[in-house]
DNA sequence: TACACGATGGTCT
DNA sequence: GACCATCGTGTAA
């Protein structure tokens, strides 16, 4: 991992880092070619105290081990037969993480369409969908730091959201008081956001400054 | 556009 | 055997 990326993660709380991640460029050097996309939507999961998190009450198993890694460790997990992409956000052994839920395709769009023959914004507007579009079908990169494998995060060539919307996290079944806490963040108006009604899409600027 | 629901397969108990 | 940080299709309005 680059020093610059290390600094990106080493400052702030996990929800602050999650917001900072909106507009950064997720880069994947796939076997088929380069693909990338700007992060449009992400969720923070605050570790052992967070009843919606995989590491709630310090739960630690082989599959969620990556959450306990250094900041920027890739956490790939499967759910309902799909894969999702997470990144550890805090110091080693502090199991807080960020779920990447949407990207706006930038490079390699044709490759993504070949991987996932869906029209329009359905290409990458969900955590399982974007993994499908990138063509990541296994957990080979799990436990590795961003930048030390084919996946990287470019924090130099970024876009800036005009406004960030907060909401409850998607898909968490009832888990007490943390169920509805506003730890989902997305770029207001960007169409590559899950479950976004058409009327809330800003098709002129996609919500960027 | 909103909601309901079935398929799905890895992971844990 | 149950759970689940999902997705796609179906229905109705």
From TrEMBL:
Keyword DNA damage: yes
Record-linked Pfam families: Pur_DNA_glyco (PF02245)
Entry's Gene Ontology molecular function annotations: alkylbase DNA N-glycosylase activity; DNA binding
Domain of life: Bacteria
Record carries keyword DNA repair: yes
InterPro entries per UniProt: Formyl_transferase-like_C_sf (IPR011034), MPG (IPR003180), MPG_sf (IPR036995)
Swiss-Prot/TrEMBL GO biological process terms: base-excision repair
SUPFAM superfamilies assigned: FMT C-terminal domain-like
EC nos: 3.2.2.-
UniProtKB keywords: DNA damage, DNA repair, Glycosidase, Hydrolase
HAMAP family: 3MGH (MF_00527)
Family recorded in the similarity comment: Belongs to the DNA glycosylase MPG family.
Name of the protein: Putative 3-methyladenine DNA glycosylase
Organism: Fructilactobacillus fructivorans
């Amino acid at each position: 991992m680059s020093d610059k990326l290390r600094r990106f993660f080493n400052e702030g709380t996990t929800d602050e880092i999650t917001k900072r991640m909106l507009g950064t460029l997720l880069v994947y050097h796939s076997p088929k070619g380069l693909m990338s996309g700007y992060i449009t939507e992400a969720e923070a999961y605050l570790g052992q105290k967070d009843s919606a998190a995989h590491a709630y009450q310090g739960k630690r198993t082989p599959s969620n081990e990556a959450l306990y890694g250094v900041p920027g460790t890739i956490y790939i997990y499967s759910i309902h037969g799909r894969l999702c992409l997470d990144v550890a956000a805090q110091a080693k052994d502090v199991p807080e993480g960020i779920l990447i839920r949407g990207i706006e395709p930038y490079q390699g769009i044709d490759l993504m369409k070949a991987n996932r023959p869906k029209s329009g914004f359905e290409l990458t507007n969900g955590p399982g969908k974007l993994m499908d579009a990138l063509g990541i079908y296994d957990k080979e990169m799990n436990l590795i730091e961003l930048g030390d494998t084919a996946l990287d995060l470019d924090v130099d060539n970024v876009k800036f959201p005009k406004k960030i919307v907060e909401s409850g996290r998607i898909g968490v079944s009832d888990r007490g008081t943390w169920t509805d806490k506003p730890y989902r963040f997305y770029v207001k108006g960007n169409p590559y956001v899950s479950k976004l009604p058409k009327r809330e899409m800003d098709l002129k600027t996609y919500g960027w400054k």
